[in-house]
Amino acid sequence: MFIREKIKKVNGGKSYIQHQLIESIRTPSGPRQQIVLNLGQLSLPEEKWKTLANCIEGFLANQKTLFPQDPEIEAKARHYASQIRQERLDRAQERITGGESAGEEPAQYEHVNINSLITNDAKTVGAEHVAISQMNEYGFDKILQGLDFTDDQIAYSKMLIVGRMVHPGSERDTVRWLSETSGAGELLDSGVKLYDKALHRAAVLLWENHAAIEQELSKRAREIFSLKETVILYDLTNTYFEGSKRGSKVARRYKSKESRNDCPLITLSLTVDEEGFPKQSKVFEGNVSEPGTLKDILEGLKKEDGMFSNDRTIVMDAGVATEENIALIRKSGYKYVVVSRKKSFEDTFWPETDEEKIMLSDGKTTLGMKLVRTEEEAFLLCHSEAKEAKEAKEKSILSLKEQRFEEALSAIKEGLEKPKRQKKYDTIIERIGRLKERYKVGNLYTIKVEQTDGKATDIKFKKNAQAQAKEEAIGTYVLRTNRLDLSGEEISKLHRSLSTVEESFKTMKGNLGLRPNFHHTDTPTIAHVHVTVLAYHILAGILKKLRTAGVHYNWNTIRNILATHIRVTTTMNTKDGCVIDVRTCTAPTEKQHTIYNKLQIKHTPLGRKNIKSPMKTQRCSAEK
What we know:
Elements: E1 2-9, E2 15-27, E3 30-40, H1 49-60, H2 71-97, E4 112-124, H3 126-137, H4 140-145, H5 151-166, H6 171-180, H7 184-188, H8 196-208, H9 210-225, E5 231-240, E6 252-253, E7 264-273, E8 278-285, H10 294-303, E9 313-316, H11 323-331, E10 335-339, E11 356-359, E12 366-373, E13 378-384, H12 385-415, H13 425-439, E14 445-452, E15 455-463, H14 465-472, E16 476-481, H15 488-496, H16 498-510, H17 522-548, H18 555-562, E17 566-574, E18 578-585, H19 590-599, E19 609-614
Parallel strand pairs: 5-9, 9-10
Antiparallel strand pairs: 1-2, 2-3, 4-17, 5-7, 6-7, 7-8, 10-16, 11-12, 12-13, 13-16, 14-15, 17-18, 18-19
């Protein structure tokens, strides 16, 4: 083998240099030269080309080197030899079987030197196999074909989603993972060239068609899993960016769910059914008013009329449950279970009977309930031990703030009676305003500053009704619904199902790469979010199958279990002077076997590929 430099011309008269690995072969017409591999443009000096060619041929012949190699040459040689070996295996397999082997393969026997045996080019296939199998079950290729995606665009889209499920990261990191670590390319049987801009374009294309894709995925899930979809859960979350996002129309500073109020945010809304299957999503500005987002979601659900049960119930938290939105839900013909925004009710509103108590699913905490029905709605007063315990810490923090706020007010008041202290009315009002801003509890107090001739003479303050209501509300909340057919326990159960959508957000943020988001402009930023949502569509089906089969692992655990299922190439020398390359998957472990069984997919995702080629004696040492 040797390396040849070739100058190629393109349209416009421009030219570029390409280096090719050439092999001399014997033919009936005499010796000929054929291209083994296009190497691109080498950065090596010409005097090292022959050394590189010899080293590549040595790796292909599975020969050991006699002398130490230049690390740069050795790294390049290993890379190119791996590419050549893979191409030869693919061509050999096509000639022998025309594709994946079916049935039992015939026995093959060879005399081999066991000391020559090496295993290389290991690629993970476990979690990728699970993800791709679920995409195939959903008919993801046909969905994209129906939207006029090309074959290459479909391949990039699937790689992008598989990457987000198995190895969440930026497009650049996904390309590195797909090229160096993952066997997803072999599983997809795609020969597309991997580079980050191709994945960027695929992400944007998926986003431009996300509504149609999500609708089709939702439809396939409904058919496959016979989903009832009588309950629609709606909630919002936000995700933050470390960068400034200057010039962005969607990234805004606001209250972050992760308490990162110093960072720009975007908001994601999501509707899921009672089993956690996503239905539709939408990205809003980071400072969007939560109540204002419901109209868009209801319009989206209306477009899918006929796909859901007529007895649909929307479950929402207090952030969205304004009177206007409740009226909008009624007008749309939906039922609702929401957390009431009204914090206080007349004492006579609730019955004097004792609370009805139920044990929650954890088997440790109880929930007290009082149910009141009116002509149009039912109200359920809930007292949660778990919520009370959680809010106890918040209450202690609030009490400390109140104590320090009162001490600061008292210090200002005492200063009014001392000489050489500030007494100007406007200044005292300003100082009190600064205290309110510092301690964030000023709304819980009624404060009156008395004055004479522009000078403050006294400060009177006491806690107001809002403070009393806040203290009494520790551990309590009120649910309201127009489902008058439900018992108190059933109403509470529907509300507690909101944890399903909260778990969805947790999964997307923790396991599916919703963050970090490294993009600077709006379109790629939103596209990144929607790739995660599409990944969650696929993951929901996987988790449903496992839960039905009694396997309750989360996705991170499943990925870890499947991480050791790999595909490798084993190379060995034979007694008759040939080299055998065999590419196959490792046998699954007991836990991997169980997961594949529960998901009803093949234990070995790819068939065996092998090739036997003559071994030529070549030098692989640096030329003198």
